[in-house]
Amino acid sequence: MTLDDVAAVHRIESASFPVPWPDYAFRQELQTNRLAHYVVVRAGQETVGYGGLWLMVDEAHITTIAVLPQWRRHGIGGRLMLELMDISRDLGARVMTLEVRLSNSAARSLYQGFGFHPVGIRPRYYSNNGEDALILTTEPLSSPGMEARFAELEQRYGATSDDGQRTPPEERT
Q1: Partners of residue 134 on adjacent β-strands
Q2: What is the pLDDT of residues 93-109, one digit of tens each?
Q3: For this structure, is 157 an active site residue?
Q4: Predicted model pTM
Q5: Domain segments of the chain: what residues?
Q6: Which of 36, 55, 59, 60 has a CB 3.0–4.6 Å from the CB of 29, allowing a cystine?
Q7: CA torsion sign, 83 to 145 to 35 to 100?
């Protein structure tokens, strides 16, 4: 993600969350937060999804992930998750964490497929309605189970080419 992506990312954010981050928050993340790493997914020229994480010591914490409503259920969220996991491994993270609304069963299902499991609750975490957040984490990213999961997910969502682009499985040779 670059500063040029912020307007499109903010549109996705506003379509995805009841209390969206303001666009200046994304600018600040990109310009001043040395812990932050953000990516976008494009379909042609349209930005259709984004995600970000903070690397804090040896923990990669997913801060946000969203896909335009009309692009959901097309594997975009999975591609974003796989990319965030690849970034986390490249940065030397030991584990990954995130929070998700207890009521967000679609996101919880996605995260479970990526090896996240519940470890706690943050009571009244969400300011718009006081809903609790479920805290999720992974096993160590270097564990045999997670290594096997990465291989499976790369088959499902596409591997990264030398130029950093994801290639869908059906387009790989």
Answers
A1: 100, 121
A2: 999 999 999 999 989 99
A3: no
A4: 0.87
A5: 3-171
A6: 36
A7: positive
